[in-house]
Structure formats: structure tokens, C-alpha cells
Amino acid sequence: MIQAIADGYVALKEAIFEHALLPALYAAGLMAWEEDATEWLDFALFGALAVLVSILVCAPLERLRPVERWDGETSTVGTDVTYTLLNRLGLLPLFAFVILQPVETAWAAGLARLGVIPPTLETVVPALRDWPVVTFLLYVVILDFAEYWRHRFQHRFDWWWALHSVHHAQRQMTFWTDDRNHLFDDIIAALWFAGVATLIGVPPGQFPLLALVMRVAESLSHANVRLAFGRIGRFVVVSPHFHRIHHALDHDAGVPARVHGTNFAVLLPIWDVIFGTARFSPGYPRTGDASGSERLATGSWWGTQVEGARRLLRTLAGRG
User: Ramachandran region of residue 115, left (φ > 0), alpha (ψ -120 to 50) or beta?
Assistant: First the structure.
């Protein structure tokens, strides 16, 4: 079954590349980008798959057990859909990975001249070469740990919060909200994720799959659904309930969104438990960021991007 799926994916990728992408490159005189285009196609297909899986998993849950219903209200969810479709093509993480690959090659070459082996995960623990599934899971754990700290830093530094507040401004949070991020913030996140992946030696072929796993998990955590994972499960995987507490409005959470000190984990709540930032409070609070402007909450994709950039400039100028 798994092999049949893999074979089907390869066949689909080859068909798209040979009949659509390659002719387009040839017509545009960009054949030098053929190899990069092949890698991009992997990200685009995995991005489309992530959207499909997220819809199949999250949409039925949101219909069956919604936290909120917005009947009669002007919906801002459409803006988040735009964010998702633009982001999930995989352009930003691929860009970061492609940019960092030459850096990794140059670094490895320099260390080789010095007789030093680059410290990747499999060179540090050679036995992992015989356990590919375990190695993959370790990649997930390490990358999730890095994502936890990136998320904390987004709330710690004023300039970074100015960008991240685009994400927190949404008052109608759904599984589409996961990709609601400022473009600059997305670039930083992509470089962060790809940089860690490069340092620990993630094979290029596994990078899209890792991104897929993380993306689907994040989509579920943002879903508008009454769902927790029980006394034990809440310590294993981030649930929509756990992450909703992180997105709570200022007066609902008891602390300003800017300095939220709780529930930063992306996939594994254990990081919040270890570092004392876990909060397992009851109820499903309203979401949003009262410190941001109305345009940040209800604007279009372009409108929220512009407003986020303005907030960043005001922060850098010391005007909040």
C-alpha cells in the first residue's frame, strides 16, 4: 500500500514536471533552474497535500464541535485562506533550504580541509544510520524544540511581536489561521526551520515530509473545535484547546497578548512543561489581540501585511 502511494506520487510528479514545468522553464529560458524547479515541485505537491489533509481532518471537526459560530457576522476567514494558499506552495521554506544548502556545502568543505567532520545528527550518533524511522522522529523532536524557542522569541522581542501580532489579530480563529503570518515573519521562520534542519543533517528528500508533519499538526492546533486530548494526551501532542489558550484575548487570558507566557509549543507540549510555560486552564477563551488595530484583525491579505509593516516601523521608531 505504502509503496503504491509512493509510486503514484512519483508518477504524478514526473507527469507535472515533464508536461508543465519543464516546458515553462524552456519557454522562459530558465533551464539552468531545472534542478531547483524539481525540488520546488516537491514542496508544492507536499504543500497541496498538507492543505488537503488539513481540510479532511479539521473541517469536519469544526462543523461537528465548533467553539464559536459566526452566523450573520462578516467573516475574516477568507483572508486566512489566502494566506494558506500562498504559503503552502512551499516557496519560503524551499527558498531558505536552497539558500542554505550552498552555505552548508562551503562549511563542510572548509571543515573537511581542516579534517573535521560536520556535526550532523547521524555523525554524532552513527547508529542512527540503521534506524531511519527513529532518526526521522528525532528530527521532528529537535525541530519542534527549535520552533518552541522561535515562538517564545516572537513574543519576547518588541520588533518580532510587531510582526507576529498579524497572526494573533484573528478573532475568528480556524485551522486556516495557522499560516496567517507577516511575510517578513514567514521569511525568518523559514530560515530558522531550514537552518536547524541543515545543521542536524536532514536529507533534502525528507525535508518536505518534515514540513508536512509540522504543518498539519499546526493546522489542527488552530482549529475552531472543542477538542482536548485528556489528562495524558495533553502532555503528548498540542491540542486545539491547549493552543487556543495561547491565542486568548487579553482580558480573557489575564495577561496582555504581547507577553503571553503560556503554551508556545508547536507539536510537543513537553517543552512548555519543562520550561514552566504550560497552562492547562479550563474553557475555550475568545481569541485576538486587543493591542492591535482593527485593520490588523479584519483587513485583506495586503491590508494586514501593510498594517503589520507599519506596526513594525512604529515599534522600531519607539512609538509602539
Answer: left
Distance CA 202, CA 228 (A): 32
Cell numbers 495561547 correspond to what residue?
A: 246
**pLDDT-derived band at 66, boundaries 50, 70, 90:** very high
3-state class (DSSP) for residue 62 = helix
CA angle, residues 139, 141, 144, in degrees to nearest 5: 105
Residues 234/137, Cβ–Cβ less than 8 Å: no
Distance CA 171, CA 72 (A): 15
**Which residues are 248's β-sheet partners?**
287
| CA atoms of 216 and 202, how far apart (whole Å) | 19
- The grid coordinates of residue 139 equal 528530527
CA separation for the pair 320, 314 (Å, rounded):
6
pLDDT in tens, 186-232: 989 888 988 888 888 888 777 777 888 888 999 999 999 999 998 89
Number of H helices, E strands in the chain: 16, 0
Q: CA-CA distance, 179 to 170, in Å (whole number)?
A: 11
Q: What are residue 287's DSSP bridge partners?
A: 248
User: In the numeric block, which cell numbers belong to residue 56?
Assistant: 479532511
The burial of 242, by beta-carbon neighbours within 10 Å (0-12 exposed, 13-18 middle, 19 or more buried), is given as: buried
Q: What is the DSSP letter of 21?
A: I
The cell numbers describing 44, all together, are: 508544492
Give residue for cell 521608531: 317
- pTM of the full structure: 0.85
Grouping H, G, I as helix, E, B as strand and the rest as coil, residue 218 is helix
User: What are the cell numbers at 122?
Assistant: 547521524
Phi, psi of 80, deg, nearest 5: -70, -35
Residue burial 267-300, b: 16+ Cβ < 10 Å; e: rest: bbbbbbeeeebbebeeebbbbbbebbbebbbbbe
* HSE toward the beta carbon, residue 163, CA cutoff 13 A: 17
